[in-house]
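User: Hey, quick favor. My workstation is busy. Could you predict this chain's structure for me?
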Amino acid sequence: MAKGFLYGGVRCGLKNKRRDVGVIYSEVPATSAGVFTRNVVRAACVDFSRRSVEGGVLRAIAVNSGNANCCTGVQGEVDCARTAEIAADALDVPAGQVAVASTGVIGQPLDMTKLERGVREACVHLQGDPSPFMEAILTTDLVEKQASAILGGGTIRGFAKGSGMIEPNMATLLGFIVTDLIVEREDLQRALREANEASFNCLTVDGDTSTNDMLFLMANGASGHRPTYPEFAHALATVCTDLARQVARDGEGATKLLEIVVRGTEDPRRVAKTIANSPLVKTAMFGCDPNWGRVLAAAGRSGVPFDPALVRLALIANDERHELFCRGEPTGFDPARVSADLKDDTVRIEFDAPGELEATVYTCDFGYGYVRINAEYHT
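Assistant: No problem, here it is.
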């Protein structure tokens, strides 16, 4: 447990069920860092919270689910600022040291009567257990997502929400990381960008970048321990990668986590992202079909040159490695045996070509549930 951080989560009625308002509070001023979506269609909270983080210090983050407060005009901006003011007043901290995050349906005004009541109540019921907060940030998520790392005498602890509309671009779903370690702001921001690039920016569920993506990092120094930069950066990256994998596994309608590993080529991450975003690859994995042709074809349209005659393609599942394609032609694998192993809940696709670079991208399969959830989401 990261010292000096408290959490609150309540239900105010923005959603039909479950908690929908959460607060993270640092008992002392916390150095802040953040990364934010590059989508040109952005929710009011994105630009507001970017400015809050740039101030260098955060005391709290107020989060609501059930409403993205995006494309809601000037009123959305007013409501976002008001949310921060409400939390600041309830916690007796400067409004400029409160960030705001929202997630949910786009284009609907916030019900500020409900939200104000919820923020105040969440601030009153702060506690060391983050469970109510984790529930409050969920939308179509099936499970709560958290990860942690111990470093010397301190802790890094992270929480995330996300299940659909996910291919982060310099940000992530909604992510909140707190630590009681002592870290200078420049190092904090640098480590967050590096960790984000290797984790959340290597994540895709459906290829859609959200309007509300934000990732926060707060360091309050309450442990008194100051790690070296490499120690902190490695531990932070471990937490972020753990969360990214959890988000991919909880993709809307998903039945399994897919890890796409590309070795070689001049841009392996681009190749891996193209494979990961292929509906044909994702549906094949849902159907436990070892359809290597779909994987190879997706790689071939990535725009990254390679020689198919030099590619090796394998699937790893159920602790078994199956090489499917080598030197320009299929191998003599047993389709029935591979299909049986693909029933595992984690599948690794390995694409090997000449070259020194390597990238891993996390995604999931596409099942019937994805279409149902997204067809019915707004209505």
